[in-house]
Amino acid sequence: MWTLTPVKTMEDDFGASSTTSPFLTESLELAMEVENETSGLSCFSCAFDSQNGGRRFSAESYLGSGSLKRVLLRLDPSPNDYEENTVELFGSQWVTEMALVESCGFLFGLLRQQIYKLENLVQMSSSDFGQAVHLHSEAESIRHQCLKFLHYVKVFIFRYLQPPKVENDGMLHPYEELEAQLPSVLVEELHALTVHVGHLCELPRQVVYANHFINLTGENLTSISLFEKHCGNLICDLISLAINKYTKVRPSEALTSSHYSCNCIKELWILLIQLLDHRNKGSNTECFWSLVNTTLKNIFEWPSTSESVSGFQTIQCKDPLSFSWWIMTHLAPLYQFDRNGNLDEKKQKESNWKFVEELLKKSTDTQTRVLEEHLRMHLQCCLTLCSFWDLNLSIVTILWDYYSKNLNSCFTVPWLGLKDLANVSKTSLSMLELVKRCCCEQQIPSLFNSSNSYFIFLSILAQIMKEENNGVHPWKQLKGRIYSKFHRKRMQELTEVGLQNFFNLFLMLAIVTETEDIVSRMLDLLDFLTPSSITASRRALIWRGHFAFLLIYVEKNMDISALAEKISNAFHEKAKEFLVTKNDYTQRQNLWTLLSTYIDGVQEVFETSCYLSLSEEKLLNDGFTMLLPACRGAELSMVLNFLQVVLARLRSVHERISRGLQLGNTAPDAQLPLMAKEHHLAVASALWRNFFPYLKSQRMSQTLPSPQLADTAAGFTLLALDIPSKALSDLQPQPVLSMMRLFGWDDMVWPQLVSRYLSHLIQNSSLCEAFSSMGYTSYEALTVRSWFRCVLQMFLDQPSGALAKTDAERTVGKAYMEQLTEMTRLIFKLSEVENILLKANVGQSVFKQDPKNALVQFIKAVGRTYTGLQTLTEKSAMVAKTLEYLGDVLKYVKPYLKAKGPPEGLQLTYWIIGCLVKFCAPILATSKAQQLLFRIVDCLLLPHAVLQQDKELPVALLSAIQESLPLYLQGLSFICCQSQTQGAYLNQLLGSVIRHYFGRFLPSSPTAPGAGQHPLLTALGSSITAPQLLRLRQTTWHVIRENYLQFKGHAPPPRLASVLAFILEVLRRTQSTELCDIDLVLPAVLKCLVLVNELQVKKISTDIVQYMVEGCQAGSGGEHATQLTSVFRQFIQDYTAVYDHRVFSILETVAVLDQTLVTSLIPTITQSLKDSEHKQGLGRNAAQREAYKRLLSHLAEAGQNEIQKLENEADQ
């Protein structure tokens, strides 16, 4: 028979803590809330309710409804329910205050029946939607009945269960006897109910209702041992469910895969935590963690000093150790939920470090041989627990004991492949960044793939180092343990991997604690390494480590002098070795590995430093003066790229600091800019001293320098602008101007270098202002001159034997073409150029053209602008400016002429300068510019090779001249018309050019290929002004007459048909006849008709005569007709005596064209006939007279009259 004592004891257990004021206040608040709450049954639900006061559980849940909270506070479980006299249970009416006492066994029997029915319904699950709805509805009804009964039991115990009354005679009423037995009956029925239901993990997922009673009524049981047994069984069941879920969890997914399958199980765990820990506070009973630990040890049969709990069966698990870590990590956050089911991150959390320490020892036990993939997961869990629980130094001790013995391990997971190489650091910055991740908040679930177990250990260590243990910094307690593991022998045993892990540890320590002490100890430990054992790759790693510590110094704004000098001295020695090592490829590669590590490290320091005020100049020592000359190709490219970064960084920081000083900074750190400025001067001095001499020496190298040389030179120029005082003495007193002369305006520097260099500087407003302030007005003109040269020399590096190509990008190279295009765009933004284009009405779209075409457009604009000027002063100034733009233009193209190639270079040369001669002819006609013109003619048109007529010119040269000669001829013609002082010489010069090239481009016969492409023909047929055309035409006819139409006796000149065909084509194209044509050409053509019998010559000559006669009809009465008559008169006088028949035949042809002309010549013909007869002394020549009469028969009345006269003379 149960007594009342146990009941009282249980109430005392659960009520002990409720007498304190916090719980009393909570109890009163809850009681007040009840007044506004509607009646409802608490139940497990998978639904969340994030909108109802921020709760994570639904309002019907045991947490959300406050059901457990009321029980723990000894309040009525449901004050608004069961107020009526009767209550409906399982479909029948019962007396509310007596039903449980009188019919306890019967009611529990009905409950078991309903549970049995519910289990059967679950097994009847159907895929038919209609049937499934019906089954679900029925199951909900049964569930509701069971919940209602269990809820009634709780309310009944709280309200109506009274201690038994003992009468004087010891006799009790039958009801009182039943009432006294109720506690024992309840215990028996609950036990029977649990046996009936079985283990929670064996039930279908939907059936978890019967066990709820254990959780919610345990405080009223009369058997404490039975309650604890039920709790233990329930935890065991929940762990079994978690094991079933863990079988599908990969180590990499451990932290993202929870241990519960639904929200109901999660709530059950939280209820257990709050219930067990509440009892633990009120009495000396096991807390939640203790019961979980015991359960885990027993079901996995782990040996322990604690006694085994009977009734536990061993559960199969693929990895008990990993499961224990997993379940522990997912249970710890459940402590954050308060009794209302709300998440409260500030809520005090109970730790379970003792058990975790045991797990950690098993994980790091060498005999256990835990795989890296599992160890990562274990340490992920440990790191997660560190974020929930208080400080624990023991776990660091356990982990350090393990990792200090395994520093040489790679800690890789083979099946991760390349992903697992993410922890390999190629630079000091990446090394530091990798370690810094350990020192900040991380996404712990992602660490499995992104970090190895050693880095996760460092994360744990870093997290613990940030906290204080009773006012003592953890480092004070851990310092000796960590340092003691490193001694001379251990350091010498470290492999390259071990050395990397060594650096990672000390980097992490330097970040979170005493930086200088850590670095000092690190350097001392590195001194234990013997030089002979340090390979090139290990030394590179050591250097990267040094720079990683330098970066920490920089980030903490600490002076780097000591550490920088140590590493820079080592760099100096290796640079010296690199300089003298030329032929040993392996040694050179090993040294470059080190040197490139240093360069990367210095660059990272400069990029990281905020003010460059921490003695960064110490890293830029004279080792670079030995390194630069020894570099080749990619090596030099890397150094120059580094130098550009340093220059840009120095200028940027210096500008920011200077701006702050100008604004009058009064902040507490106002002295910092002043101090920084001194360091900036030191950095600038080191750059000029150790880098610039090499740049200067390379600007005119025999081979094309790297484009980065130009970029770097531009950086130095801007540095000279910002900090002029530190430039080298040979650049003073105006270092910016000296730099421009060296790299931008020197004609001997490679054009690729110049174009890239100037493109960086042309639009720099500060640079323009600097030149203006020093009164240097030629800045823009000299820059334009350099552009001229860069365009003209764009083919300079092409082999002279290369075939001509149509694609300029293939020939020159896409990069240089793009560079020239950009330079052209910038040139056209210069104020002088813009002004010229504006005056010449040339649009800004010009610069978008190909650089060659843009240059021609600029030349045209210069000539047009000059033509538009009015005053002599303006014109004189424009001539001077143009000459300044051009410079020694012939010097630019001399390499092409000397090498006689490449073809593209020669074509470009002759075309551009030909455009200059044509479109700037008014300027070249002036006395200031004529010397340039004479040099152009001498060098390009009349060089020594051209003067040797019997010597063949190279095809490429001849082709270039042929295409561009019309430009020169037209320009020279204009100059001949304009020149006041050198007119005769210029005419002679023009004649010489025509004489030398007329024959070179004249085909052997009119039908030969290319016969119609003679450059003179192009020049004469172009639309140029009349005086120019006339001068060119006159000079051309004069040259042809004197050199190509002269007979040797009766022998015709060579290529006569071609010469005549040229003359005929000029007449056809111009559609006009000039006096010079009649004077200089017609006599020779008539002579050809008389003396040459070749049909082709006769045909062409006849066509020429026809064009000239028709061009100046005698009937017009003009000067042309008079001159034409004079030429024919002379022709008749010269040839009638000997070639009378041919003369008369020619005149017959002319008579058809212009009868008047021939009629006017009758007296001359008649007189010539008589003179011929007289000279022969044979009397009248009947044959001649008959021929003459045939001619006269074509001349109408005048002819008949003359015939009559002749006949009359014959009769006499």
Helix content: 55-70%
**Rg result:** 55 Å
Outline: elongated
Figure out the total of helices.
56
Strand order of the largest sheet: 1-2
Question: Which spans of ≥5 residues are poorly predicted at pLDDT below 50?
Answer: 1-25, 34-38, 207-222, 304-312
Protein name: Protein MMS22-like
Domain MMS22-like C-terminal: 818-1195
Keywords: Chromatin regulator, Chromosome, DNA damage, DNA repair, Nucleus
Domain Protein MMS22-like N-terminal: 205-701
Describe this structure in words.
- With about 1200 residues, the chain is mainly alpha-helical.
- About 65% of the residues lie in helices and about 0% in strands.
- A two-stranded antiparallel sheet has the order 1-2.
- Helix 21 (about 495-510) runs parallel beside helix 23 and helix 40 (about 890-900) packs antiparallel against helix 41 (about 905-920).
